Amino acid sequence: MNVFIAGGTSGMGYALALHYLKKGYDVGICGRNPEKVPENCPENLNIFQADVSEPASIDTAVQFFLKGGKSLDIFINCAGSYAEDVAGKISYEEAEEMLQTNVLGTVNCFETARKAMRKQNKGSIAVIASVSGILEYEKSSLYTKTKRSVIQMADAYRRALKPFGISVTAIAPGYVDTEKLRQLNNHDLGKKPFLTDVETAVAIISTAIEKQEKLVIFPVKMKWLMKSLSLLPSSLLNMIMFRKARWMKDDPN
């Protein structure tokens, strides 16, 4: 089995890469900065420099990985960009990076995987969204809107690719205890409810891909919390989410 993971140089992507290597699969990963990969990484891990926001970049990385006529069995897009703008302002550069990575990058990854798998009439594509993406309300953050679009794009590609034996799985996790999450929160995760450890997240994601699930939301408590919130009027949800964001920023005003 051949697995390629975009955004696999750190965090959840790297953990998934190690998982598939242990299963004896041929694994390739890419990221904007390959130097993020730990120095003690397995020698048989194929590492590429690529930016998902540039179609030619991700295409080239996958083509090098598949040289020799290999098939692409699993493609996972773990690349993502985050900045919170509910209780504060973000820069244009931060907004642009989220749109380029989370939206355009998702399309580019789908297209790269589609072209490779369409030739072989089989394969599994998975994309990491966010549990926040299941909420739809007027003043949701740009991050939430981009991740909601990821879920919708996955649904569109699933419908289009199903006749060709290609499955598409959207993963919408809550908070996963990665180093990136710790850095974003000054290593204090006390305000992150229903925190999931990386090993559990890897098990859930890999199982969902194997079973060709359509949409997987975890942990279960976060799933039902978000589904309950989605039933509220938009005005009330706006207020709740604004106060939640302000609380996480320790803003008393």
TrEMBL record:
<dbReference type="GO" id="GO:0016020">
    <property type="term" value="C:membrane"/>
</dbReference>
<protein>
    <submittedName>
        <fullName>3-oxoacyl-ACP reductase</fullName>
    </submittedName>
</protein>
<dbReference type="InterPro" id="IPR036291">
    <property type="entry name" value="NAD(P)-bd_dom_sf"/>
</dbReference>
<dbReference type="GO" id="GO:0016491">
    <property type="term" value="F:oxidoreductase activity"/>
</dbReference>
<dbReference type="InterPro" id="IPR002347">
    <property type="entry name" value="SDR_fam"/>
</dbReference>
<comment type="similarity">
    <text>Belongs to the short-chain dehydrogenases/reductases (SDR) family.</text>
</comment>
<dbReference type="Pfam" id="PF00106">
    <property type="entry name" value="adh_short"/>
</dbReference>
<keyword id="KW-0560">Oxidoreductase</keyword>
